[in-house]
Amino acid sequence: MGRNKGTAKVPGGTMPLLEHLRELRNRLLRSVLAIIAATVLGFVFYEQLLAFLTDPYRGIEPDLAAQGIDTNLVITGIGGAFQFQLKIALVAGIVIASPVWIWQLWAFVLPALHRNERRGALLLTGIGVPLFLSGVALAYVILPKAILLLIGFVPDGFESLVSGAEYYDFIIRMMLVFGIAAEIPLAVVLLNRLGVVSGKALVRARPWTVVGIFVFAAVATPSTDPLTMLFLAIPMTFLYLVSEVIARLTDRRRARDVPTIADDEASPL
Q1: What's the CA dihedral at 45, 51, 53, 56 to 10 degrees?
Q2: Which of 63, 116, 169, 185 is 20 to 30 A removed from 257 (C-alpha atoms)?
Q3: Average pLDDT rounded to a whole number, residues 66-72
Q4: Nearest by Cα to 128 from 161, 102, 110
Q5: Residue 173: per-residue pLDDT
Q6: What is the pLDDT of residues 163-204, one digit of tens each?
Q7: Which residues contact 200 (CB under 8 A, 6 or more apart)?
Q8: 60 CB contacts (<8 Å, ≥6 apart)?
Q9: Residue 56: which of 161, 157, 175 has the closest Cα?
Q10: Which of 8-17, 27-36, 117-126, 192-201 has the lowest mean pLDDT?
């Protein structure tokens, strides 16, 4: 596994268990310190973060007013404002510090891999970050439509009071669900490269997989409306089909690289 400079080695290039535990502790400590520092930064820019997160809600207020619906964001409880600010700063800190703690994780794992495996792992990591951010961006774009649809069910004569904590949990869950769902091709390609699934198996499982994607989208989206479900399920299905094509191309290249030996020819072994 990972090694720090000056770490004692035993024959064979391995490290004792205690050295592994010390290095893991050091890397976890660095990750936690980075998250704490980034969380403090989140407190500093709390107003900007709050404006960014509430923009989808503020953008639909005129549409709701046109429907005769009065709605407001409220914070309840004596310590509700502080808890709300702490949660926003903490999540922002985890996101801002992600390059540090992700690298600490890889720095611990990568030395145990072969050179080709290291390249593949770093490549997949580099692809995974843009995919996750793309999913989060898509969720942020459709958030106003989902909120407008759901609050639009408020009956006449009622006012909609939305708790700040409830609203924050809603948008964070939406972003996380969309971001994680965007990692589908990465997970499928990784399983294919490890030899767990083949391109042909993915083709055979396609109908059930598509059904499973729509079921997942219906359960995972916090808005529970069909429009948001389709916004999640359709991109997921497309990404699965793309990963299926990549897996089949990988299988073909892998088959070409395997040397063919005639029946009457001795193998290299």
Answers
A1: -160
A2: 185
A3: 81
A4: 102
A5: 84
A6: 888 888 888 888 888 888 888 877 887 777 767 788 888 888
A7: 248, 251
A8: 144, 147, 148, 151
A9: 175
A10: 8-17
First CA to last CA across the chain, in angstroms?
Answer: 31
Neighbours of 115 (CB within 10 A): 7
d(CA 262, CA 266): 8
| Spatial CA neighbour of 181 closest among 122, 138, 211 | 138
Q: What is the pLDDT of residues 18-30, one digit of tens each?
A: 887 888 888 899 9
Distance CA 221, CA 235 (A): 14
| Neighbouring C-beta atoms of residue 97, cutoff 10 Å | 23
Q: Which of 142, 209, 189 is nearest to 170 (CA)?
A: 142
Q: What single letter denotes the amino acid at residue 160?
A: S
Q: How far is CA 160 from CA 61, 70, 125, 154, in A?
A: 11, 6, 42, 7
**Mean predicted confidence (pLDDT) in 238-260:** 80
Contact (Cβ atoms closer than 8 angstroms) between residue 247 and residue 232: no
**The two three-digit tokens of residue 81, written as one number:** 């404002």
Residue 56: which of 151, 138, 148, 164 has the closest Cα?
A: 148
